[in-house]
Amino acid sequence: MTASDAVLGAPVERREGREKVTGAARYAAEFDAPGRAQAWPVPAAVARGRVTGVDAAGALALPGVLTVLTHENAPRLGDPDDPTLSVLQGPHVPHRGWFVGLVVAETLEAARAGAAAVRVAYETEAHDVTLTASHSGAYVPESANGGFPAATEHGDPDGAFASSPTRLDVEYRVPPLHNHPMEPHTSTAHWDGYRLTVHSSSQGTTAVQKELARLFALPEDRITVRAEHVGGGFGSKGTPRPEVVLAAMAARETGRRVTVALPRRYLPAVVGHRAPTLHRLRLGADADGRLTALVHEVTTHTSRVKEFVEQAAVPARVMYAAPALRTVHRVAALDVPTPSWMRAPGECPGMYALESAVDELAAELGVDPVELRIRNEPETEPDSGKPFSSRHLVECLREGARRFGWEGRDPRPRSRAAGPLLIGTGVAAATYPVLVSPCVASARALPDGGFLVRVNGTDIGTGARTVLAQIAADALGAPLERVRIEVADSGIGFAPMAGGSSGTASWGSALHEACVRLSGRLAEHSGPLPEEGLVVEADTFGVADAESPYARHAFGAHFAEVGVDTVSGEVRVTRLLGVFAAGRILNARTARSQFIGGMTMGLGMALTEDSTMDPEFGDFVQRDLAAYHMPAHADVSAVEAHWVEEADDHLNPMGSKGIGEIGIVGSAAAVGNAVHHATGIRFRELPLTPDRVLTALLEHEHPAGMLGV
Q: Choosing from 211, 381, 609, 661, which is the catalytic residue?
């Protein structure tokens, strides 16, 4: 056994763990220097309209306030690739919370007080923020997020559905959801002549660098963006957000280093959200429980600033063998904040609706829900017809059922109780695509026998540094402790963002290639290494982004047990179990952490997370963690994550699939299906809060007209 044989797959501890727990890790707001200023934005107080006047006198009179930027005096920017970054460029207010000013001051407290003292006059316009399935402005876009076709159709779905012995026609609703990373969106900017340096809480420094270059008319090599440590993002930091533009703008205007740290209450309006999705599913099946028709239609909203269409019907194109299949996305442009990516965009809400409907179909047919999924396993990807590079969903379902003790389950609803608690169990499948993007990386052999590897990937708390070092050590045939790694610096070169569960595959492929080439160079080298070492670079453009003849996806199966309190309506998840097929697992410790994190986030989606758009006020009501409830450790008694061994040679040099998002997909559906099994009531709108559950329980016990009798 060589030194590297046990490196890849080993449960190696995170390299940056000690820095984080001791406070040595520096985040974007912590790059201080003498003279640093702080800035606080001024959000629009109307749902739609235009600014007719700004009175900054009260703010400028406060001690410590340096300047107030508005559309009247802010620097003119170039046209952004993302229109949400066109801040302080005009009087138009597209939605409530849009930034109309920025106060820069000596201290954070002075900036906040200054922002409160700014007086803004508006001319308001009529607004529309309410999404309905029949909204008159809903249309079928050219494509959904990710470039997926907005609509697909195979066979005759309507005819097949109409002639099916068993038919299910149901609607599901997922509310707006918010990312809420632990570290709010923050950037610190500093100009040195015509060179700009930014420390940003971002999931990708390359994207920030390119956008800033476009906005400030600078060559990219004059901009350095670093994201050394990032306290989560879940998609909301996947592209540049307004705070980085404001920080760079304020730093140029004041000549100071400036930090903009967005207050959490401002995040829902300016950093994206998971758009609400209204689902209609029609499933037809024959007498044996095999699907004859599958129709998944989704209606969602986008803003008038930028079109973003949650691709929630896409997973229906992957999951089950249905000879007649139609998927459609419709979107209505409203006066709302621009939605964006949130962990497993599309797959997460889409699979919640699909897997809930499949559970309803199983109950209608009297077929075990695990068995029904297995019966409808496709031989090839239904939408494209491509063979799967690997698909071990059946193994996940069977292994999960074995571990969960599914065989002893009484399928009858309300068949188990413990005092006032109704006990139920549920299952759901999961899928997420394997994505990979081009990247550059380098590997350097040092005279002291060590190695330095560099790749501009961002570690957003997933343990990317550690896994990438393991990939490098494996490719080099070197002990892990001999490998140093540098990440998250735009000066290293192009790298895709940490998103789409694609980071490890994208960065790791380039890093693996660089290390393999370096090993070859070292084998040919004789004598001592030069003082600067020996360096090799790799660029996977044209390789990583080449079209594959295979349909590449990760799969999984979720099982949940719940207790529903018939007195309070509270739902408690007593057990969550997931089994996943995600290619080669590169680090058992960080992988389990990612799976469990996703599953817990799905639990929050099922039970607590909810956001309400106020039709009159024109903004989200739940704007902070006091109102937007996320699960805590006490909210789940046991979470188990397992995986099946999966070898797939059609992915990347490591044979890995992304694991950051597959854990959340299906988790909420498993909980919802368990609640139905416990209560006999099918809830088709999330979240399953006590008021919603208790009302349904009372109506179930006392049919209409009987309450109060």
A: 661
Distance CA 84, CA 95 (A): 11
Whole-number Cα distances in Å, 201 to 224, 266, 620: 14, 16, 24
pLDDT, one tens digit per residue, over 83-120 is 999 999 999 999 999 999 999 999 999 999 999 999 99
CB 191 within 8 A of CB 212: no
- The total number of residues shown for the chain amounts to 709
Going along 288-415, which residue ranges are E strands? Answer: 291-303, 325-334
Give exposure, 352-368, as e/b (b: 16+ Cβ within 10 Å). Answer: bbbbbbbbbbbbebebb
Task: Say which DSSP state 256 is in.
Answer: S
Question: Which residues, 6+ apart, have CB-to-CB distance to 37 below 8 Å?
Answer: 66, 104, 105, 106, 111, 250, 254, 256, 257, 258, 259
**Distance (Å, rounded) from C-alpha 643 to C-alpha 232?**
24
d(CA 144, CA 312): 9
Residues 305 and 97 sit within 8 Å (Cβ to Cβ): no
Distance between CA atoms of residues 458 and 471, nearest Å: 16
Structure tokens, 49: 């309209």
For residue range 384-426, list pLDDT tens digits in order: 999 999 999 999 999 999 999 999 999 999 999 999 999 999 9
661 is catalytic: yes
Global pTM reads 0.96
- CB burial of 292-313 (b: ≥16 within 10 Å; e: otherwise) equals bbbbbbbbbbbbbbebbbbbbb
Query: Residue 503 — φ and ψ, nearest 5°?
Result: -60, -55
Q: Is residue 659 within 8 Å of 554, Cβ to Cβ? A: yes
Considering only CA atoms, which of 11, 7, 3, 5 is closest in space to residue 463?
11
Neighbours of 592 (CB within 10 A): 19
Dist CA 327 CA 157 (whole Å)? 10
Q: CA-CA distance, 82 to 244, in Å (whole number)? A: 13
- Say if CB 289 and CB 360 are below 8 A apart: no
614-667 pLDDT tens trace:
999 999 999 999 999 999 888 888 999 999 999 999 999 999 999 999 999 999
Least confident of 313-317, 481-485, 664-668, 698-702: 698-702
- Residue 477, token pair as written in the block: 């045939």
